[in-house]
Structure formats: structure tokens, C-alpha cells
Specification:
Blueprint (H helix, E strand, L loop, with lengths): L5 E5 L3 H13 L3 E5 L2 H5 L9 E5 L7 H10 L6 E5 L4 H10 L3 E4 L4 H12 L5
Parallel strand pairs: 1-2, 1-3, 3-4, 4-5
Length: 125
């Protein structure tokens, strides 16, 4: 039996984390959430994460800084960057860095699910 696909969510906003965990679980994913990049990096979940959904702007460590740290450590987890402060420059920088999907808030659930399923190789409805 294969293990469930694990989606890790890193966002400093409690309501966003709860909503995204609920969405991922309702579509059959195992979801874990963290309120900071440091929390995620120090967790056991890091090693089993199949896809990371991370907010761009958080206190302490931005989502892009977290992604850059993971890449530098050789842990290239497909990452979806979400942001309420969208700019074309930020999008371009994120995609050039290797971010899998860049989604400005608010985004459609279907758009996020498409990114997650594509990143994890799971069936797309």
C-alpha cells in the first residue's frame, strides 16, 4: 500500500492554513500546516512532503527564502507560492527561481488543485 500524498502548507494566517488543510483533505491529500518556515524546516514532515504551498510574505522568512533554502539543501520540493501582494516582478523572480506555480490571492480552488495535482502527479479531475 502506498503512502498518501503529503501537502505541507506554510502560512502565518491561521484562517488561510485551516482553509487550505481542509481543501487538501477533502480531495484525498494528507495535509500538514505550519505558521512559519522555521516550523516547517524543523519538522519531521519536511522529509515526507510531496508538495509545498507557501505564502510569499511572512514574518521572519518569506516563502521564496524558504524555497531557496530547500533548494540549496538539495530538497527540491515542488512549491506553490501564494501571495496577496502580487507584482509582475515578484512572479517573474519566483518562477525564475524554480517555483512550480505562483498564485495571487484570491485564487480559485480549482486553480490551486490543478497546481497540486500537476506537481504531485496525481489524477486531475
Amino acid at each position: 500500500m502506498s503512502r498518501p500524498v503529503t501537502i505541507s502548507i506554510v502560512d502565518d494566517d491561521d484562517s488561510v492554513r485551516e482553509a487550505l488543510v481542509g481543501l487538501m483533505q477533502s480531495h484525498g491529500f494528507h495535509a500538514e500546516s505550519f505558521d512559519s518556515g522555521i516550523g516547517f524546516l524543523s519538522s519531521e514532515t519536511l522529509h515526507g512532503t510531496d508538495c509545498l504551498i507557501v505564502d510569499m510574505h511572512m514574518p521572519g522568512m518569506s516563502g521564496l527564502a524558504l524555497f531557496d533554502l530547500l533548494v540549496a539543501a538539495g530538497r527540491g520540493i515542488p512549491t506553490i507560492l501564494i501571495t496577496a501582494r502580487h507584482t509582475a516582478e515578484a512572479r517573474d523572480r519566483a518562477l525564475q527561481a524554480g517555483i512550480y506555480c505562483y498564485l495571487p490571492k484570491p485564487f480559485a480552488e480549482a486553480e490551486l488543485l490543478h497546481c497540486v495535482r500537476s506537481a504531485t502527479g496525481t489524477r486531475i479531475d
